[in-house]
Design a protein that fits this description.
- This protein is α+β, with helices and mostly antiparallel strands and 245 residues long.
- It folds into 2 domains: 4-134; 140-243, Transferase(Phosphotransferase) domain 1 (Transferase(Phosphotransferase), domain 1, Orthogonal Bundle).
- It has 6 helices and 13 strands.
- The chain has helices at residues 31-36, 94-107, 142-148, 153-168, 206-224, 232-243; strands spanning 4-9, 12-17, 43-44, 56-61, 64-70, 85-86, 115-123, 126-134, 140-141, 171-172, 181-183, 189-191, 198-199.
- Strands 1, 2, 3, 4, 5, 6, 7 and 8 form an 8-stranded antiparallel beta sheet that branches. A 3-stranded antiparallel beta sheet has the order 9-11-12. A two-stranded antiparallel ribbon has the order 10-13.
- Helix 4 (153-168) crosses helix 6.
- It starts with a strand and ends with a helix.
- It binds adenosine-5'-diphosphate and magnesium ion (MG).
- The site of magnesium ion (MG) has 4 residues, from loops.
Length: 245
């Protein structure tokens, strides 16, 4: 984490990428502050374009297009606990884990968003957190694309070979699904959403589990969306790409 600078403001901790910004204020994590400053050109991404649990906010700061995400809980527990997590130390927080993972994967030249900053707000034995990354321009998730369009066999193969690159470097994406694979207008593949992910030092069943999870997510969308352009052949193409050297 040597390219990150840490600052504390009472219960708030901000880590920012000092190779990108000399200073990074706590206000940049607050949508109400972003809205209030016209220079930042704040936008909330449209719900039909993104599948995040909470809002995905974009703004421009220091000439860079940035994305702000707040961490929200998923699953059953989210009915009771909205966005608080149990404090187990700074580096175990969602935001710091994702910042660190992105930083390592950037160093491995893997296609992920460039990490910009993380914010952790401590409150006793709980914390809330946010992360800011650089925007991947003109990118939509596979889930959004498949509702509108098909994805060609060549692009499916490319998705498979990109997943394989992550696996070869030991990157275990704990939540690989159709929402977390993005394609830009040139069909370049990016993976996002690494807060629960980790680098594995051993090869093992985790690679298979990633692929099973992705397939399950595509099948689930096929069953729940009125028009979802996914067929079994598509996953075969993906696996062709995954298994080719
Ligand atoms: N850096 C980024 N550039 C472009 N889009 C992004 C970026 N980060 C997130 N998104 C969009 O926001 C959505 C939600 O972000 P994600 O990291 O998956 O959070 P969540 O935990 O809410 O699923 C993604 O599916 C993607 O469409
Ligand atoms: Mg996601």
């Amino acid at each position: 984490m040597k390219s990150f600078e840490f600052n504390s403001y009472g219960n708030d901790i901000v880590a920012h990428n000092k190779t990108l910004f000399t200073e990074f204020s706590l206000d940049l994590f607050k949508p109400e502050c972003l809205v209030a400053n016209d220079v930042l050109q704040y936008r909330r991404m449209r719900a039909q374009d993104v599948n995040g649990r909470g809002g995905v906010h974009t703004f421009i700061f220091g000439g860079q297009d940035l994305v702000l995400r707040h961490y929200y809980r998923g699953g059953m527990i989210s009915k009771y606990i909205y966005d608080s997590y149990l404090w187990q130390g700074l580096y175990k927080s969602r935001a710091m884990n994702e910042l660190q993972m992105l930083s390592k994967m950037q160093a491995m030249s893997l296609p992920v968003p460039i990490p910009v900053a993380a914010h952790i707000q401590k409150n006793g034995f709980l914390y809330k957190a946010d992360i800011i990354t650089q925007l991947i321009p003109q990118a939509l998730s596979c889930s959004t694309i498949l509702i509108r369009n098909t994805i060609s066999a060549e692009v499916w193969q490319n998705i498979g070979s990109v997943i394989r690159r992550f696996h070869d470097k030991g990157c275990n994406h704990a939540d690989l699904n159709a929402h977390n694979i993005l394609l830009n207008e040139k069909n370049c593949v990016f993976l996002v959403d690494f807060d629960k992910s980790q680098i594995e030092t051993r090869s093992g069943s985790w690679k298979q589990r990633n692929l099973v999870r992705l397939k399950r997510s595509l099948l689930k969308l096929k069953n729940t969306e009125a028009n979802f352009n996914y067929s079994e052949q598509d996953f075969k193409s993906l696996m062709q790409g995954y298994n080719s050297d």
